Amino acid sequence: MFSKICVALLAATSVFSGTDARQVRKSEVHSRQVEAAKRWRTSGQILKRATPQNITFKNPKASQFFVDGTTIPEVDFDIGPSWSGLMPISANQNETRKLFFWFFPPGPEGSLDDLIFWTNGGPGCSSLEGLLQENGPFQWGVGQAKPVQNEFSWTNLSSVLWVEQPVGTGFSQGTPNIRNEDDLAEQLVGFMQQFLEVFSELKNKKLYLTGESYAGTYVPYIANYIYTHPTALPLSLQGIWIADPVLGWDVVQEQIPAVAFVHKYEHVFAFNQTFMKQLDQLAITCNYTGYIEKHATYPPKGLLPLPGRSTSAERGCDLWDVIFDAAFRINPAFNIYRIFDTYPVLWDVLGFPGSFPQIQLAPLYFDRDDVKKAIHAPTNVNWAECSDINVFPHGDASLPSSFTVLPNVIEKSNRSVIVHGLADFILIAEGARIVIQNMTWGGKQGFQTPIANDSFLVDGVGALGNAHTERGLTYLEVALSGHMVPQYSPLAAFQSMQYLMGFRATP
Q1: Which residues form a coiled coil (predicted)?
Q2: How far apart are CA 115 and CA 159, in angstroms?
């Protein structure tokens, strides 16, 4: 018997050590990666930013904001001309409230007839994060050694205006005094009025309002303000694009789907079965179990109920935080914005790589004096990605947009797009589905037919999530993407923007 075992072991050894053993060399892996990456570059639609199209601004004041694309610190290529700086929110000569902006003209394939506005959320988080790590012409993502050209830049579609708003965000100046989203929209429109007086060649463009996270509140209210004040801006608002947005109550977007989300990604969370049983029992007690199947039907059977007596989690039912604490104990790098991250936490030039800020050995990129000088930012401001200043001094008194202005915006827009990353835990896609099924627009409540699986087809890649369109609203779910879709799935975000702008017939 012993001799037979030895013969078997020797035979096995010869399989793994002989000439027939499988060997994958790094060069072979790299060549296959290159071939695979080609599928993400559709023919001629996405280009590395070359010399941008020329826009000449005649107002002498515009020259004060000009940024030389060869002088951006750490960027070893010419990003082309742009304009940035502080702009007041009103024409009052004594106005002290100013918003910081960075404007880029379109790349060689982009449209000169359109203007994309972008804002990050928070509230109080900087839109320069979106520019540098999501959809800007140059990109310095988490874990990258230096900036690179962003072939999925939205400047390959049209001009883009990134704005740090509201007052109190990023480099923006002044004392915050807004009470609600109507105040925020009024101040943003006031800023846009001053911006268009300096950059008047941008008047009469088609406008698209975009953003992510708390911008799910910002953007619909700004859009509604523009639609209800049609003479306020010499721009033609066409539609909105919001990713992983705050649309409804936290109990709906976080708590109800939390345990089901853990089951969906059970091997990622890696909880033991005892804890999973405890979660399941808590979900039953809190009336979260089976909620989506029972209430978020297609079409809905009526207004969807809250699982308890409150718009927030009742005592003992904050399962989202229970899950977060447990996940963080197992995985010190657990990232609520994209659950696949593991230890160690990657370095981030903006100091916010995941669920918590990271101590940097050097100043944050936008807090460097040379960067501030290059983009006309105030040098006396200590820049942070998300402000410690309360931009709503007494809280945001506005209701979530799905209950108020979002239906009107959808009805008045040519197209409206909601995008959601399926690997986002801070706001969960199934929660967005509940909000949509509880919202009435175009004379009907919710989507009337189910969202088909594998229905979001990305060019050159294939199915990468789910897509559904009814009555002017398109809802997209993106597989593998976390909270910041243009960062985690840039081609999917780019393609969805092409659709919003009418550059393609389907998303």
Answers
A1: none
A2: 5
